[in-house]
Design brief:
Layout: H1 9-31, H2 34-39, E1 46-51, E2 77-83, E3 90-95, E4 106-107, E5 132-133, E6 138-143, E7 146-151
Antiparallel strand pairs: 1-2, 2-3, 3-7, 4-5, 5-6, 6-7
C-alpha cells in the first residue's frame, strides 16, 4: 500500500492567501491610512482655512482647486471647502460679519436640482427658495450665521461655469 506524499495544493494556496492577508493587515496597521490614499486617490478632497487670507485666490496660487470665489468677502473666516476633482462639485461654508454682496448677485428661480455633491458641513435641509448666484454657476445662501455656496446638479443659465468643471451649461 502506498501513501500519497504530494502536497495538498488547496491547503497550500489557502495558507499563502492567509499569510498575504496577514501581511497586508500588518502593513495597514503600521503605516496608517496613507497607503490607502496612495492606492485610492481622494476624488472629493476637503480643506479648512482659518481666514480668507490663508486661502488661495485666483491668479495668486498654484492651488487653483481651492481658490476662493470672487463673491467670498475678505473678512470670511472658518472656511471649509470640498470639491470633486473630476466632475462638477464644489461646496463652501464660511462665517462673515460683512456677508456676501448680494447686490452683485442674481436671484435664482429654483434650486437647480440642489447640490451636485455633499459635504459633512452642508446642512441637511438646504433652502430651495431665496437662493442667489454670483456669476460663477453656484447657488449661494445664508443659513443661520454661516454662508454656503454649492455647484448645483443642473447648470444655472447665463453663468461662467469655468470654475465648476461643468460642460453642460
Amino acid at each position: 500500500m502506498s501513501i500519497d506524499t504530494r502536497p495538498n495544493t488547496s491547503r497550500r494556496t489557502l495558507r499563502i492567501a492567509l499569510a498575504g492577508a496577514a501581511a497586508l493587515s500588518a502593513l495597514l496597521l503600521t503605516t496608517g491610512c496613507s497607503v490607502l490614499e496612495d492606492i485610492v486617490p481622494n476624488k472629493t478632497p476637503q480643506k479648512h482655512f482659518a481666514t480668507y487670507s490663508d486661502a488661495p485666490r485666483s491668479g495668486e496660487s498654484k492651488d487653483m482647486a481651492f481658490f476662493m470665489p470672487e463673491w467670498v468677502p475678505e473678512d470670511a473666516k472658518n472656511i471649509d471647502v470640498r470639491l470633486h476633482a473630476s466632475q462638477p462639485g464644489y461646496v463652501i461654508r464660511f462665517a462673515s460679519q460683512e456677508g456676501v454682496d448680494l447686490a452683485a448677485c442674481t436671484k435664482l428661480d429654483g434650486s437647480y436640482g440642489g447640490p451636485a455633491m455633499t459635504a459633512d458641513f452642508l446642512p441637511d435641509d438646504l433652502p430651495t427658495k431665496g437662493l442667489v448666484t454670483c456669476g460663477d454657476g453656484r447657488a449661494v445662501a445664508e443659513i443661520g450665521d454661516r454662508w454656503y455656496g454649492w455647484t448645483t446638479k443642473n447648470a444655472i443659465p447665463g453663468q461662467d461655469d469655468s470654475s465648476t468643471l461643468r460642460t453642460d451649461g
